[in-house]
Amino acid sequence: KNQVEQSPQSLIILEGKNCTLQCNYTVSPFSNLRWYKQDTGRGPVSLTIMTFSENTKSNGRYTATLDADTKQSSLHITASQLSDSASYICVPRRIDADSGYALNFGKGTSLLVTP
Amino acid sequence: DGGITQSPKYLFRKEGQNVTLSCEQNLNHDAMYWYRQDPGQGLRLIYYSQIVNDFQKGDIAEGYSVSREKKESFPLTVTSAQKNPTAFYLCASSTEDTQYFGPGTRLTVL
Predict the structure, then answer these.
(1) Where does residue B53 fall: left (phi above 0), alpha (psi -120 to 50 degrees), or beta otherwise?
(2) N or C, which terminus of chain A has less Cβ within 10 Å?
(3) Which burial class, exposed, middle or buried, applies to A14 when counting CB atoms under 10 A from its CB (0-12, 13-18, 19+)?
(4) Chain B residues within an 8 Å CB radius of A32
(5) What is the C-alpha separation between A64 and A49, in angstroms, rounded?
(6) A42 and B103 in contact by Cβ < 8 A?
(7) Per the omega criterion (within 30 degrees of 0), is the bond before A44 cis?
(8) Pseudo-torsion of CA A69, A100, B42, B32, nearest 10°?
(9) Smallest Cα–Cα separation from A21: which of A73, A70, A91?
(10) pLDDT for A10-46, tens place per residue?
């Protein structure tokens, strides 16, 4: 059962434009949600982490939002740069009775920024 | 990639051969993980270890084995029993709330 849905699957935008990536999740009980950036052929790198009590968090040109009631999150990228081209992965964390917690990885949104 | 190294970066193997992927971390983290990533798919957990000499199966452990003899090292062996081993393999270690990923190993079975 896929507990994390990301949209769009892929996206192409012009350099300098803004974009918003979406993440819907069903994991429960919910602990926090993290957005990762993964460059091609590299490991994911954390961009932001949000707990259920946080609505918005920014990291430079990246702004994440979270609505824990509707189980939705978004990642907004402002004034995109060529280096933003990557896959962006949404990862909600579920409290797990056995292991303490469990991560559920979305399939990612592949972003291509063109000149 | 913050203190986690994986080697080799690219690995080729013939069908029927076992192969071991290396993962080392100098972050002093207790917990370590192995994930598999296929095109268009999310990361899937193979094995994880929360402490030395202990490890647990993840969602797709069949055809894989691990060991955790040292805190710094968590090698993954892809055995000949793994039916579809060609993939990108990621190792991670974690604090209480953050996972740090290595650069990955791309395994191709010829």
Answers:
(1) left
(2) N
(3) exposed
(4) 97
(5) 9
(6) yes
(7) no
(8) 150
(9) A73
(10) 999 999 999 999 999 998 888 889 999 999 999 999 9
